[in-house]
Amino acid sequence: MSIKEIVEQALREGYLTPSMEAEVGRVCDTAGELSIEEYRSLDRLMGALLTGEVVGMPRKQFINVMEELVIAEAIARAAEIESFAKDSLDIGDIAAYALNRLPPLYATTEEGASYQRQRAREDLQEMIRSAVKEALDRFLFCPVINPDRVPIAKPSREDTLTSLHGLLKSHAVNYEPRPAGPLD
């Protein structure tokens, strides 16, 4: 699908799906240079998103139940350690390390999440404990590899718009908007 077709569909339907958004990004990333028509389409899409004429559809909501189980285990074990240690532990680092060694347990409904929690308690609890213990050992007995690292932050709406603006600007190096005429 072309950018123009995606934008026309978004304007017609009033929403931009995650797959439409991904396709626009793919076209922008793979195109050597976008045409003036493509720039105009992107400009129309940006304006429609800013005014609310087109809304971005949220991605499907789901959770990884393993995350909450690992975080609970990590907090419990870290609390035990911190009671006699002088340094506090980074639960995010510990959980990420453990989660990279465990199977995901995704769910899209409360019933599915309850099923996954029960399954984990019955079949995976020892594996979770072991992965969290390994993560704690790693962080307690190994030096910090990169003390200047920057944590991941959730982007705000403004950050997303700024990123989209930068993407459009980087692909529109030679594009100069002209005043709207009778054909626009």
From TrEMBL:
Pfam families: ComFB. InterPro entries: ComFB. This is Late competence development ComFB family protein. The lineage of its organism: Bacteria, Bacillati, Cyanobacteriota, Cyanophyceae, Oscillatoriophycideae.
